[in-house]
Design brief:
The chain has helices at 2-17, 27-45, 49-55, 58-81, 83-96, 100-115, 119-127, 139-186, 198-225, 230-240, 249-260, 290-319; strands at residues 263-270, 273-281. The chain is built from twelve helices and two strands.
Length: 320
């Protein structure tokens, strides 16, 4: 456990510094292509909608299971060549499962454009990380979109893969990332994916259940360190987290809303169609650009505290 904790901490630092360099093919890109190919094969072979639900089980089995076996095999081969090669590959794989730098950079890009009063570019930048229509949003709504995106992704983009890396190293962390990628590609409740993507969506909810609730603890500590309203964050988590469409993402989003004293959620438009999401937090004031930077700070600090606690506890148990 101590070894995994050290690997995880190093992987987190690598992600904070390097992120996802474009010159290297990211494993998630490969996962995405594999998912697309598998979907085409399933739809070509299965014509009846009633059989698509059973076929949907192939996604977790093939993609998630296949990812675990592939990564474990690569690490085994690397270990045969040299121990340090296997260690380096393990750390790199773990670093690719988290997105602290990428998520923070995306949020800060929107923040900087807002500070420059460049609403047009801020809308475009927000449109790169959210699915909602952004063309007519004002500064407050742009800020809300960025805050919500950063807050709700703390779990699935950072702490969940770290959690699974602790349990099963890079193979399990990469398997989790495959499950999360599946959910983002086919885990929708619309007409196209309600049968084919149900297993992927359910698996993602199950995998994130424990990490999301552990993340709440570290998020509250992060809010305390940043001298934000910890008690209100806890109150909003208890009161509003369950209102979110996701049983897990609402925990961090409600916590951030409470810590900042703002209200998230409300009406969004998708291709011109209004979608009403439950509101979390209280509208004590209007959401502003500075709330983005505060949310990014919480997002960066939460997994750092997780890693520090992990290393400390692992060291204590190692020497007991």
């Amino acid at each position: 456990m101590l070894v995994h904790a050290i690997y995880i901490f190093i992987a987190y630092i690598i992600d904070r510094i390097v992120g996802d360099p474009r010159i290297v093919i990211h494993p998630v890109v490969i996962m995405g292509k594999a998912i697309t190919i598998l979907e085409r094969m399933i739809r070509k072979l299965v014509k009846s909608e009633k059989f698509l639900k059973a076929a949907g089980l192939l996604f977790p089995i093939v993609i998630v299971g296949g990812t675990y076996l592939m990564v474990a095999f690569l690490l085994y081969i690397a270990g045969l060549l040299h121990e340090w090669l296997a260690i380096g590959l393990e750390i790199w794989f773990i670093s690719t499962t988290i997105a602290t730098k990428g998520l923070g950079d995306a949020g800060m890009e929107v923040y900087h454009y807002l500070k420059e009063n460049n609403l047009s570019q801020a809308r475009k930048s927000l449109g790169m990380i959210v699915g909602r229509d952004t063309e007519h949003l004002d500064e407050s709504e742009i800020s809300r979109g960025a805050v919500e995106t950063v807050a709700e992704n703390i779990v699935d983009a950072i702490t969940s893969p770290l959690f699974f890396a602790l349990i099963g190293g890079a193979p399990l962390a990469m398997a989790y990332r495959a499950a999360n990628t599946l959910d983002s590609m086919v885990g929708y409740k619309n007409e196209k994916y309600k049968n084919l993507g149900w297993a992927s969506a359910r698996l993602d909810d199950v995998l994130n259940y424990i990490p999301a609730r552990l993340t709440a603890l570290f998020l509250l500590v992060a809010c305390w360190v940043k001298r934000l309203d910890v008690l209100n964050a806890l109150r909003m988590i208890k009161r509003d987290a369950r209102k979110h469409p996701s049983p897990n993402s609402g925990i961090t989003e409600a916590g951030v809303a409470g810590a900042l004293g703002i209200q998230l959620g409300g009406t969004n438009f998708y291709q011109g169609i209004a979608s009403h999401r439950a509101k979390m937090g209280e509208p004590n004031r209007k959401i502003e650009a500075d709330d983005i930077i505060k949310t990014v700070q919480i997002m960066r600090l939460t997994p750092l505290i997780f890693c520090i606690v992990l290393v400390v506890l692992s060291t204590v148990f190692y020497y007991i």
